[in-house]
Amino acid sequence: MTDATHPYDALMDITARPKAVFVRGAGSYLWDDSRKRYLDFVQGWAVNCLGHSPPAIADALAAQAKRLLTPSPAFYNEPSLKLARALVESSAFDQVFFANSGAEANEGAIKLARKYGSLHKSGAFEIISFEGGFHGRTLATMSASGKKAFEPLFEPKVAGFKKVKLNDIASVEALINDNTVAVMLEPIQGESGVWPATDQFLQELRTLTAAHGLLLIFDEIQTGMGRTGKLFHYEHTGIAPDIMTLGKGIGGGVPLAALLATERASCFEHGDQGGTFNGNPIMCAAGLAVLEQVGKPDFLKSVAETGLLLESELQKVSARHGLGGVRGRGLLLALDLKLPIAPAIVAQAFEAGVLLNAPQVDTLRFMPALNVTRQAIAEMIDCLDGILTKAGAARRVA
């Protein structure tokens, strides 16, 4: 598709997109090339943790770009060393490998677990993952995912992944055998509709994996960097995994991800893992700016409080319109619509200047900036309430 202004057909057609072309962003708002303003409760799928084009990140990028773009990952650079140290000091992990995307970080976690199995578990290589999970779009991360739409794609998949049910510890225990090396999961499954693992289940999983000498891998691509009111979701549970992956929010809008591991699990040898842009100083400078803001106790407290406000407002909407429950934690929430109307609501909200997300046909997902204001929440709720009111009236007439 091409028009006089934009050659849309030059991009591969991999997803349905509205024709609006965004040209500017600030905080919780975006503007398209017709100067229409949109309130953004998607934020790049939880990527823009500080909103669009925050000064702290913009300034860090500009300053680093004037100093050094990249010396290549064959050499150390200052921002990557500083960010790695800051992440280690803020977490339960000892070492960091930087990547460019969440999928790449998860691919690294899979490789690290298999390396561990080859060294310490007599060649064990199987990883137990979960139905409904989503870990990325490389062949290995698609194979680890429990997304039904992935099952017929790009066969044959990478072998060695067994799927179990979330919050069912017996189903995990039943699949452990001599070939098992790790269990991998999202603490909150985002793409399947924001389905949380309970804290009790995660604690039981830690006990089970420790008893069998298995690695526990948390994919915190979406839940990490303050999204649930703690810097990392595992902090809610009183336990820590052996490996954790970060992405999305860690770069605040630029391509940055990280694989973190304990000293015990950090078993890569020279040549096992790498990448041309891994630990790029510009991206790591952005990561430092993000961590400096998001890691502050007052900021995290504000995220938790704002999350409770958004949850309360969504519950009120649900009660008014006879909808289902609200799921999630902090500022990663979902509203169960109980009907397959989510895509239609997303389309109507877009026309009204509000960006929402429908991970499933009966579910809306909310991923605003972590510093979203009460006013912005009220604006979104008013829009959603109006759409649901019209939809209810239409159903009653029909």
From TrEMBL:
Any one of the GO BP annotations: L-arginine biosynthetic process
Zinc keyword on record: no
Biological pathway: Amino-acid biosynthesis; L-arginine biosynthesis; N(2)-acetyl-L-ornithine from L-glutamate: step 4/4
The EC number(s) this enzyme carries: 2.6.1.11
Top enzyme class: transferase
Cofactor(s) demanded: pyridoxal 5'-phosphate
Pfam assignment, any one: Aminotran_3
Keywords from the UniProt entry: Amino-acid biosynthesis, Aminotransferase, Arginine biosynthesis, Cytoplasm, Pyridoxal phosphate, Transferase
PROSITE patterns in the record: AA_TRANSFER_CLASS_3
InterPro entries: AcOrn/SuccOrn_fam (IPR004636), Aminotrans_3 (IPR005814), Aminotrans_3_PPA_site (IPR049704), Class-III_PLP-dep_AT (IPR050103), PyrdxlP-dep_Trfase (IPR015424), PyrdxlP-dep_Trfase_major (IPR015421), PyrdxlP-dep_Trfase_small (IPR015422)
PTM-bearing positions, type N6-(pyridoxal phosphate)lysine: 248
One GO location term (cellular component): cytoplasm
Gene Ontology MF terms in the entry: identical protein binding; N2-acetyl-L-ornithine:2-oxoglutarate 5-aminotransferase activity; pyridoxal phosphate binding
Subcellular location(s) of the protein: Cytoplasm
Binding-site positions, N(2)-acetyl-L-ornithine: 137
Gene3D superfamilies documented for this protein: Aspartate Aminotransferase, domain 1, Type I PLP-dependent aspartate aminotransferase-like (Major domain)
Reactions it catalyzes: N(2)-acetyl-L-ornithine + 2-oxoglutarate = N-acetyl-L-glutamate 5-semialdehyde + L-glutamate
Cofactor note: Binds 1 pyridoxal phosphate per subunit.
Subunit-level organization: Homodimer.
Other known facts: May also have succinyldiaminopimelate aminotransferase activity, thus carrying out the corresponding step in lysine biosynthesis.
Family note: Belongs to the class-III pyridoxal-phosphate-dependent aminotransferase family. ArgD subfamily.
HAMAP family linked to this entry: ArgD_aminotrans_3
Record's protein name: Acetylornithine aminotransferase
